[in-house]
Design goal:
The chain is α/β, with parallel strands linked by helices. 33% of the residues lie in helices and 18% in strands. A hairpin with a 6-residue loop joins strand 11 and strand 12. The model has no long low-confidence stretch (mean pLDDT 89).
Amino acid sequence: CGHCKSLAPEYEKAAKVLKEYKVTLASVDATVEQALGKQFEVKGYPTLKFFHNGVPSNYEGGRTQAKIVKWVLGAINAPLKTLTTAESVKEFAAAQPVSVVGFGEVAALQAVSAADNDLVYALATAPAAKVYGVPVPSVVVLHASGDKAVHEGPFTEEAITAFVDRERFPTVVAFSMENARDIWQTKSGKIAFLFSAEANADFTALATEYRGRLLFVTSDGSVSRLNDHLGASSANFPQLILLGMKVGSNQFARYPLAGAPTLDAMKEHITAFLAGSLTPTLKSEAAPADNTAPVKIVTGNTFADIVLDPSKNVMLEIYAPWCGH
């Protein structure tokens, strides 16, 4: 099973972290132990079950180390771990791609952690904060790369949540199938995609300037599914495409930049996008040159003008050319 092979290294890394919480991660080959697979109604692979006091429940988290750890800690209602040295903070941060640490007394952090399905949180003592170089109290988002962002207040649930949501991604995210789900579910609902085979300093500068308002993502064009999904063509690289996501769904509106993505052109395009003054570009076939037949032809670009015309009643047939009916 390819999915099982992809999960295996993440599962092993999660096991090392969860061992400290006295949680055991185990695996069983259901092609050998077929009776167990039947007993627990396994329909596909991999299937994860969580046993609390011997009672099984379905695992409903993600398949990365951080998401596995987060889900299990929530399932056992674990209190936030307390880190007492700068070295323990560094070890905690290195164990997952992104983590959150509250230095000193940050009472709201437990509630913020409980509401976050993705990141792992901890508390750290004031001596650790002093050595680590952050004020007390503070909340710090730590990236395994060594980057960190510091929040010095206010320390309400709302303020901490907004800070973590803004800082959980690096300034520029390199797209991969592993982080695709997190990208599509970004809280801002606004994404700037740059398709380019090379790094772009202007794009990075804009990502810094507009951090928290859009998520800035790059792709080298090697993920063909992404190219097809967004209508990106290597013939047009480098290419900037802005997306307005419908929160809670996979629906989005596309706003590609016409022309080369220079600093001024990208900034003007982003400014207009944030102001709501851009018209989305639809993935649509061209409208027919002659549309005077009794049955009108509707395309993505003409749908609103023909079907949603308030002065007319319209019957719309949605068909497939190959369908005999």
